[in-house]
Amino acid sequence: MKLGVELAVGARIGERSADRGGHALRLADYEAVIIAGVPAVPQPDGSMTQYTACRFTSDPASLQEAAARGSLCAQVFLDARGTVR
């Protein structure tokens, strides 16, 4: 778990794919509600990439930079909201 919380998964937001050189990446975003725990990063699990920081915002523009750098999850979210990247 990258955030250390338990989620209730909701509706699918969208999906994107990207060529990452030697492999293809396919990512789907879903709405979710935290049902247990408090988000904390990084988690003590070395088996996956880890977040170094997290924050909550109601401003989708805060994802613009990440989307421009290639973050598929940010791109999916902004596309679903009709937000220009």
From TrEMBL:
<protein>
    <submittedName>
        <fullName>Uncharacterized protein</fullName>
    </submittedName>
</protein>
